[in-house]
Amino acid sequence: MSVRRGKLWSRTVFLLILATVAGVVLLPVFYFLTISFASNYEAYQFPAKIFPTFSYPAQLRYNADKKNYTLLIKKGADFEAVKTTSDTSDFSLYCKSQLNVLIASSEVQALFDKAKGADHAIPIKLKKAFFRNYVVFFILAEGTMRALFNSLKAAGWTILISLVLGGVTGYILARYKFRFSNTFSTGLLVVRMFPAVALSLPLVVYIVRMNLYDTPFALAIVYSVPNIALTAWITSSIFKGISVELEEAAMVFGATRLKTLLTITFPLAFPAIVASSLYAFLAAWNDSITALIMTNDNPTLALLVYRTVGSSTIPNLPAAGAVVLLVPSLVFTFIIKNYINQLWGNVAL
Amino acid sequence: MHVSRRTGFFKSPTWFLVPVVIYYAAFWIRPTISVIIESFTDKAGAFSFSNYVRLFSQEAIRTAFLNTVLFTVGSAIIQFVLAFALALWLNKKFRFSNLVLFITLIPMAFPPAAVGILWKTGLYRFGWINSFLCAIGLMNPANPVDWMSFRNLNAVMLLIVVDTWTVLPSVMIILLAGLQNFNKEFEEAGWVFGANKFQTLKDIVFPIMKPTIITAMILRMIAAVQVWLIAVMIFGYNVVPFLVERIAYNVDVITFAKYARKDAYTISVIVAAIVLISVSMYLRVSGDKQKGGETT
Prior knowledge:
Order of helices and strands of chain B: HHHHHHHHHHHHH
Structural class of chain A: alpha+beta
CATH architecture of chain B: Orthogonal Bundle
Structural class of chain B: mainly alpha
Number of helices of chain A: 15
Strand content of chain B: under 5%
CATH class of chain B: Mainly Alpha
CATH topology of chain B: MetI-like fold
Radius of gyration of chain B: 24 Å
Largest interface: A-B, 88 and 93 residues
Number of strands of chain A: 4
CATH superfamily of the largest domain in chain A: MetI-like
CATH topology of the largest domain in chain A: MetI-like fold
Oligomer: heterodimer
Number of domains of chain A: 3
Strand order of the largest sheet of chain A: 3-2-1-4
Strand content of chain A: 5-15%
Largest sheet of chain B: none
Largest sheet of chain A: 4 strands, antiparallel
Helix content of chain A: 55-70%
Number of strands of chain B: 0
């Protein structure tokens, strides 16, 4: 009996911990996603909803004494008057900007006529343009798409520089022992952790001199500093795992060194190369301090999101930007999850 | 003939490291040296400590220093306790434990800018935190708390909570990796000799895990001293000064002030120095760990 009670007790505790962990992680994420889909009207509602809505339960009333129309939206048990106008385009504009509802003036006219005919408020259905915030933030707002491309360009250059320089370094470190190889790998570790902010500041001077200021390529130069070291470290551990005999066997059969590299070593090291590219991507994609220091008119997406937060009071638009910022980050982090384990778990150098 | 010439060239593979060395000389060593020189010279270019003296005479910098220390120590302690508990829990295999691990890792993937917005939408007076507290009946909807009006120590604590939310998974994953490599038999030996769960944890698991724990904590420290974005996104500049926040402030807001550049350079030297000290500690610990691994 007591054994069963103990079991029940530990099971309850277990479920409680499970619920807390899941709640602490998922609640903010759900609320955050919902806000990114919320219209201005919804963003001002309190308490906020945890799941996004697709339409508003609303009513339209004709005020015979003033000859105008009132839009009412359900709030709790009652309906709340949100807009009173007699002008169809004014009504349609309000729907677009505050409610994220796209409704043409002609359709509004039809609704007005219907409301005028009835002697009480008529129920109407306002369907939300679900991705309106995303459209506004990315397509209608000037510069967002360019910031997105800047981010991608910076990430692309970072991957290229890191892979070429870091991959070669990794291969040499794995295959050859030279006089300073230990010092060299320790140096790489120090570079990997060196704060980017201490580099970006003095580098601006050189970057301006090189005529690269305010370009994604200049950002990639800074991002590559730790990432070359990281790539070298990841690839060298993989190259060490690929046996030298395999390469020698290929060369016995007459393959040149280059051909051996391309046909034997490279395909075997491919997962590590992908992982280090994704790391390089994330470093470039997530950064904001280097972009803040090194760009002016050509910000990256992360920097743009940070700046829009400062300038807007309701964060539904920047939230939409942040969700787009989040998606590749989320996908790539989970692809390289096992490498993170290796990277920090087995710290042996 | 052809082959031998090639191997002759490859006999000195160090040649292939030349581009990397050049890259690091140009984009790491050169800027590092120049920033150190900048921080130790006055406007005329003569050697002096005036930048450091001026810096530490500023109230905001002293607060930034204190806040950074508070933040680093506070977040290290909280994150260690929570991450260790979570890692111990997830190390027991149960049904869906992989799914739970997946869920707990989600915040790790958030870019700092996204974390900033997520919590800003929560912390303002009509944000989701108050909405949630009202929904479960812990708060009166008529009188919500304005979290963003928090100042000083309370604000730092709030930022520690926000930071913990996003970095806990990465601390946890290091500790979990350590626990997974951990030989279960040591723990079982403790139980055989009559130790209870707490004693085994304290006398067996902790000492063996010590290098992993220290590694995780040093890595956290390196990241924690560089905190700025969440502070600025949630509270704005000047409210909760941190060291890197001061750099961003000098670069972003008072760009053309007389000493903005010099101050930014000097603070970044201080940040880099803290990071380098942490790295050398890390190297010693990981070196010890490696030696330990060789003997067993």
